[in-house]
């Protein structure tokens, strides 16, 4: 069998890494992804470890890179993601990279800051120009329409330096002008009125274009206002109110020439600012483009570096403090590759003393490694979701590849639906190398990961659909039905036969609503339909009576065979872990128990199918009654299935009854006898305690030189305990619980397999209802209107088929098939108490920009 | 007559699944996945053959027949026979 049958043998190896070459060796190991490192410094906090400084440096570099990526994406520059993964940089290059990145960051920040300042400046100038333009109309208007200001005719002619007041005859008229938010205008005006009580005149107008607010960056509407006030005190108040409402105040020119001057000055300054701003933005873009070329490889390099330092932190120093010691779990098949990787690393760093390794014996349980390809990965995930297999135990995933889709298909069994599912899965499989699918959202991702499972489920559903003869709830008549209706008519028979049977003629048929075919009449039943269920049953009103009986018996047969297979797999486990006594004392009684009761049930079912026919149908006994009578021994028994049935059943019951105490007490008593009968060998070593009593593997991991001679006769189990630790009570209790669970479980699990019948019935009925409610309604309308009606009906039919029958029923059958595997099948042999082997590998680090680190 | 019409499908399908399940494994090319493919072939053959066998055994000696509406009887009589 391939390596999918059992997990791979592992060994513990010690790596001696010279301090000069440690980094390169780990880099070589990370590229290959061979081994899993063990943390030797578990009680040291992460801040006290040796390489904390380097890890911090990596994190600093990561921060700079994240900032870079942010700026690059903000400027909408495309970020090329390279295909090749660059190796981790040697320590000499790191300093250089660090300097480069830091310089780049500083420069970027400065340029961005300058750009912001320039933009803010520009906005203010633009606002000023707008304000000047709009207030020109105010003043003109004032002069034209409000002659009240004629008292101060020389307003326009005076040239003033200070905008806030005018010194003339003690009367001070001042102007405040600026811009204010659209939303605040009313409140502003009211406040001014209340505070200044009419000594101010406010004019404002809306600015047509919305400008950007230099502080917040939003684009909003502004109002230009001009406040003319009379008096210095009022002036202060007005200014305070303006501050309060966050107005942008600009100097108000008092003469037309001044205004023109200011406007020209502003225009030139705006032009200059535009040019400078453009140049700055171009420069920034240039810098970012250049950085974008190498940023991806830098990100990968920094990630790898950080992973290497994290792993180095797990190693410990030896006494001379010059050599790092690492303990790794390594599959035995890869020991040579490990040596070669170490040599390669030592060579790359140019050290005189190479790093080396050796294997050490251990008592701990190694992690479980099962190599999967993209096809078997899905099924292995199903099994691992229940529990990762213990070290070197039989892996049910190998058989789940076929039994899981098969049991799903038994519950789903529809030709049409299965074909649609198959097509969908085929679409996913054919496009599996397209990059988009790998990174899509959650639900599609789940379907994508299970594409091979879906493919097989669809294929098997097509097969079971053919056997159930169910295609979108209709049957397909390929070979011709074997039930002959004409033979029921009296015209098909000779006179003498007619007297014995109830036959039909035209008037009988016309007047009775339903009539049942009788297989006892010769010629009516011409043999079983060669492949699957006869299509006439689809037209029959008593279809479910026949199908229920068929499907229930089928579920029970399939279930018992599945469970027996599970118990048989347990035998392989016992053989591998060299506990032959388990086979005799546990597996054989279990098999006998199961087969004597339920195997006999299968025999009765098949016997009744073969022997009883329509002629003897009156005496055909019910299997259920016979099965129950097997245990109750009623006084007035029925005629039974076959002669001698009582004796056979008695024998089977006796065998079962004998196997139960063997199952309960056999193993604990045997172990007790071993423990007492043979005095303890093999405990001359102190501290020889085993973590797990059930595995021989730890012992075989001990080096050969440690095992005493003459131990071969003890392979049956004395090794598995020390003198002090043999706890009879515990072993007895465990075995009793296991036995009770098994015996009761046999009955309940067999009944549990009836869900195969229940779900296939539900699916068939749902499908039937959908057809009857939708398609039949559409197909019954005769006229041309019917054709038009058929289009939306078919669309609705398709949508409901997909959502209800494919997705909902598919999920339901999927779930129940998983349940059958996890509980009914796996609890016959599977322990599932192991840990998964997670190698130190750079390919396990995520390669996307947004994801965080995965430290191996 | 029933025996004949039963024997022929049995022979055909037994040989078919027997070829897949028993002869097929000999032709699987050597490679890392040989064990997996052999297991898949054998399991498929066993499951599918068993399923078909149960279906045909259940119909071999029916104890009762289908109950049809009179319209269906008329239709089947004139269209299928």
Word description of this protein:
- The complex is a heterodimer of chains A (856) and B (81).
- Helices cover 56% and strands 7% of the residues of chain A.
- Chain A is built from 23 helices and twelve strands.
- In chain A, helix 2 runs parallel beside helix 3.
- Chain B has 81 residues and is mainly α.
- Helices cover 70% and strands 4% of the residues of chain B.
- Chain B contains three helices and one strand.
- The two termini of chain B are 18 Å apart.
- The mean pLDDT of chain B is 89.
- The chains are: A alpha+beta (856), B mainly alpha (81).
- Chains A and B meet through helix 9, helix 13, strand 12, helix 16 and helix 17 of A and helix 1, helix 2, strand 1 and helix 3 of B.
- Strand 12 (514-516) of chain A pairs antiparallel with strand 1 (67-69) of chain B, so a sheet runs across the interface.
Beta-strand residue fraction of chain A: 5-15%
Spatial shape of chain B: elongated
Distance between the termini of chain A: 30 Å
The Cα radius of gyration of chain B reads 20 Å
User: Portion of residues in helices of chain B?
Assistant: over 70%
Mean pLDDT rating of chain B: 89
N to C succession of SSEs of chain B: HHEH
Largest β sheet strand count, sense and barrel closure of chain A: 5 strands, antiparallel
Helix content of chain A: 55-70%
Poorly predicted regions of chain B are none
Which range does the strand content of chain B fall in? Answer: under 5%
Please tell me the overall pLDDT of chain A. 83
Q: Number of helical segments of chain A?
A: 23
Uncertain segments of chain A are 143-170, 681-724, 849-856
Q: What's the gyration radius of chain A in Å?
A: 44 Å
Chains forming the largest contact? A-B, 71 and 47 residues
Structure classification of chain A = alpha+beta
What kind of sheet is the major sheet of chain B? none
Number of helices of chain B: 3
Question: Terminal Cα separation of chain B, in Å?
Answer: 18 Å
């Amino acid at each position: 069998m391939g390596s999918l049958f059992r997990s791979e043998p592992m060994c513990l190896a010690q790596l001696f890494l010279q301090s000069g070459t440690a980094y390169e060796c780990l880099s070589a190991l990370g590229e290959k992804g061979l081994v899993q490192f063990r943390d030797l410094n578990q009680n040291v906090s992460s801040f006290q470890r040796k390489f904390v400084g380097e890890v911090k440096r990596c994190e600093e570099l990561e921060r700079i890179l994240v900032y870079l990526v942010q700026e690059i994406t903000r400027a909408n520059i495309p970020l090329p993601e390279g295909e090749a993964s660059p190796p981790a940089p040697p320590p000499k290059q790191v300093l250089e990279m660090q300097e480069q990145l830091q310089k780049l960051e500083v420069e970027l920040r400065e340029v961005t800051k300058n750009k912001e300042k320039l933009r803010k400046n520009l906005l203010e100038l633009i606002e000023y120009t707008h304000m000047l333009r709009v207030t020109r109309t105010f003043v003109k208007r004032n002069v034209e329409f409000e002659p009240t200001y004629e008292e101060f005719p020389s307003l326009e002619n005076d040239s003033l330096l200070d905008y806030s007041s005018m010194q003339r005859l003690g009367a001070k008229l001042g102007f405040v002008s600026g811009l204010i938010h659209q939303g605040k205008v009313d409140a502003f005006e009211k406040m001014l009125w209340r505070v200044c009580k009419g000594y101010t005149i406010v004019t404002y107008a809306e600015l047509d274009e919305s400008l950007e607010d230099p502080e917040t960056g939003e684009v909003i509407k502004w109002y230009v206002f001009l406040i003319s006030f009379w008096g210095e005190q009022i002036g202060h108040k007005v200014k305070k109110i303006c501050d309060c409402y966050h107005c942008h105040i600009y100097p108000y020119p008092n003469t037309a020439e001044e205004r023109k001057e200011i406007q020209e000055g502003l225009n030139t300054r705006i032009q200059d600012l535009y040019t400078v701003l453009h140049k700055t933005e171009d420069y920034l873009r240039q810098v970012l483009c250049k950085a974008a070329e190498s940023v991806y490889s830098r990100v990968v390099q920094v990630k790898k570096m950080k992973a290497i330092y994290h792993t180095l932190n797990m190693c410990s120093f030896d006494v001379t403090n010059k050599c790092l010691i690492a303990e790794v779990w390594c599959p035995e098949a890869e020991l040579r590759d490990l040596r070669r990787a170490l040599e390669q690393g030592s060579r790359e760093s140019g050290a005189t003393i190479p790093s080396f390794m050796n294997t050490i014996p251990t008592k701990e349980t190694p992690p479980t490694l099962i190599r999967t390809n993209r096809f078997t990965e899905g099924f292995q995930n199903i099994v691992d979701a229940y529990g990762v297999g213990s070290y070197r135990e039989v892996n049910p995933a190998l058989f789940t590849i076929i039994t899981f889709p098969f049991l799903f298909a038994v519950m789903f069994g529809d030709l049409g639906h299965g074909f649609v599912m198959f097509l969908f899965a085929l679409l996913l499989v054919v496009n599996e190398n397209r990059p988009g699918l790998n990174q899509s959202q959650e639900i599609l991702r789940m379907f994508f990961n299970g594409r091979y499972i879906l493919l097989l489920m669809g294929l098997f559903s097509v097969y079971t659909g053919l056997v159930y003869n169910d295609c979108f709830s209709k049957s397909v008549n390929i070979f011709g039905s074997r039930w002959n209706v004409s033979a029921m008519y009296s015209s098909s028979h000779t006179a003498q036969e007619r007297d014995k049977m109830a036959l039909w003629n035209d008037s009988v048929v016309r007047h009775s609503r339903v009539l049942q075919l009788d297989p006892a009449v010769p010629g009516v039943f011409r043999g079983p339909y060669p492949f699957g269920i006869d299509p006439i049953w689809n037209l029959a009103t008593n279809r479910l009576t026949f199908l229920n009986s068929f499907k229930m018996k089928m579920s029970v047969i399939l279930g018992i065979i599945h469970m027996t297979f599970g118990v048989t797999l347990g035998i392989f486990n016992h053989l591998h872990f060299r506990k032959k006594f388990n086979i005799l004392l546990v597996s054989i009684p279990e098999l006998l128990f199961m087969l004597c009761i339920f195997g006999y049930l299968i025999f009765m079912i098949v016997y009744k199918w073969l022997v009883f026919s329509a002629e003897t149908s009156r005496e055909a006994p019910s299997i259920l009654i016979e099965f129950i009578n097997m245990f109750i021994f009623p006084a007035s028994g029925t005629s039974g299935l076959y002669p001698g049935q009582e004796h056979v059943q008695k024998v089977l019951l006796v065998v079962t009854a004998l196997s139960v105490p063997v199952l309960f007490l056999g193993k604990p008593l045997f172990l007790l006898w071993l423990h007492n009968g043979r005095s303890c060998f093999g405990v001359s070593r102190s501290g020889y305690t085993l973590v797990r009593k059930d595995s021989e593997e730890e012992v075989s991991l001990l080096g050969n030189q440690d095992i005493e001679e003459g131990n071969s006769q003890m392979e049956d189990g004395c090794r598995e305990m020390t003198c002090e630790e043999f706890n009879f009570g515990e072993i007895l209790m465990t075995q009793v619980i296991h036995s009770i669970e098994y015996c009761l479980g046999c009955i309940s699990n067999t009944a549990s397999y009836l869900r195969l019948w229940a779900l296939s019935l539900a699916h068939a009925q749902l499908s039937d209802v959908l057809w009857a409610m939708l398609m039949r309604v559409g197909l019954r309308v005769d006229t041309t209107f019917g054709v038009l009606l058929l289009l939306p009906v078919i669309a609705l039919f398709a949508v409901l088929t997909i959502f209800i029958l494919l997705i909902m029923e598919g999920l339901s059958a999927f779930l129940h098939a998983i349940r059958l595997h996890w509980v009914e099948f796996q609890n016959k042999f599977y322990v599932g108490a192991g840990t998964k082997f997670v190698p130190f590998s750079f390919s396990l680090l995520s390669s996307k920009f947004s994801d965080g680190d995965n430290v191996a | 007559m029933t025996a004949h019409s039963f024997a022929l499908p049995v022979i055909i399908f037994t040989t078919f699944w027997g070829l897949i399940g028993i002869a097929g494994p000999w032709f699987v090319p050597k490679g890392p996945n040989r064990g997996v493919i052999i297991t898949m072939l054998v399991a498929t053959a066993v499951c599918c053959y068993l399923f078909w066998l149960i279906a045909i055994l259940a119909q071999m000696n029916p104890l009762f027949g289908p109950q049809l509406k009179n319209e269906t009887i008329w239709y089947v009589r004139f269209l299928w026979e």
